[in-house]
């Protein structure tokens, strides 16, 4: 954060502002998250009503970075000439269209002003529109049958390894153990990420048991001392 050489007056003014500012009402609804938030207009009005009484004002301007992100930079000014310049906040627009970029800028303006001036502008994150998830249900990735088959095969192999060590667990018993670790009742509920995790965990256990058995097999026989 950049700032003027002295911030004594602006710091005092910000403290007085925080004492007197009236929090705006949450006047907008987010239908996706079923929550309420304060619009940019209401945030700006709340700040302007109190900030001017303490010699405070602000400037915001859009910026971009090399990754294609859109951002907003914010500077808080005091009538004495002192200032606080905050690092830009960035977001990636859903699409490279004026509407998507405008949505990001609106959200970031409200978000940064609320953070800088201590405005409680939202109950939950309504930036989903700017980030591309507005009014969209998360898409569940189709279950990969190959990953399901691999987990089942690994469970079968583990069951066979366990039998050699005197432990009787069926393939389904092994599956139930690992499904339980994810709070799942059956394989159809598992995501591809969970299937990968289960497959790797079972394979690791198989290797551990095989290594243990190999070590026991390779142990030299103890020679008893000749009786004198």
Task: Describe the model.
Mean pLDDT is 81; it is low at 133-138. The strands form two sheets. The chain has a four-stranded antiparallel β-sheet with strand order 1-6-5-4. It has a two-stranded antiparallel ribbon with strand order 2-3. Helix 5 runs parallel beside helix 7. Helix content is 47%, strand content 15%. It is α+β, with helices and mostly antiparallel strands. Strand 5 (70-78) and strand 6 (83-91) form a beta hairpin. It folds into two domains: 2-131, no CATH class; 145-211. The chain has helices spanning 8-20, 40-51, 98-117, 128-131, 145-164, 171-181, 192-218; strands at 2-3, 28-30, 35-37, 56-64, 70-78, 83-91. The chain has seven helices and six strands, in the order E-H-E-E-H-E-E-E-H-H-H-H-H.
């Amino acid at each position: 954060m950049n700032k003027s050489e002295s911030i004594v007056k602006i710091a005092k003014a910000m403290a007085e502002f925080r004492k007197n500012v009236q929090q705006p009402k949450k006047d907008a609804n987010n239908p996706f998250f079923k929550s309420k938030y304060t619009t940019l207009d209401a945030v700006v009005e709340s700040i302007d009503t109190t900030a001017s009484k303490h010699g405070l004002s602000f400037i915001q301007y859009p910026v971009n970075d090399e990754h294609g992100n859109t951002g907003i930079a914010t500077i808080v000014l005091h009538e004495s000439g002192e200032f606080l310049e905050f690092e830009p906040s960035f977001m990636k627009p859903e699409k490279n269209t004026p509407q998507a970029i405008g949505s990001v800028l609106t959200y970031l303006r409200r978000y940064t002003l609320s953070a800088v001036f201590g405005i409680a502008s939202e109950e939950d994150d309504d930036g989903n529109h700017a980030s591309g998830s507005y009014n969209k249900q998360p898409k569940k990735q189709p279950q990969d049958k190959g990953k399901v088959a691999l987990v089942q095969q690994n469970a079968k192999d583990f069951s066979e390894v366990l039998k050699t060590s005197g432990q009787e667990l069926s393939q389904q018993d092994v599956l139930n153990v690992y499904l339980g670790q994810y709070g799942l009742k059956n394989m159809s509920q598992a995501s591809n990420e969970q299937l990968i995790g289960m497959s790797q965990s079972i394979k690791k256990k198989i290797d551990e048991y095989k290594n243990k058995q190999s070590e026991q097999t390779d142990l030299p026989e103890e020679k008893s001392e000749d009786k004198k």
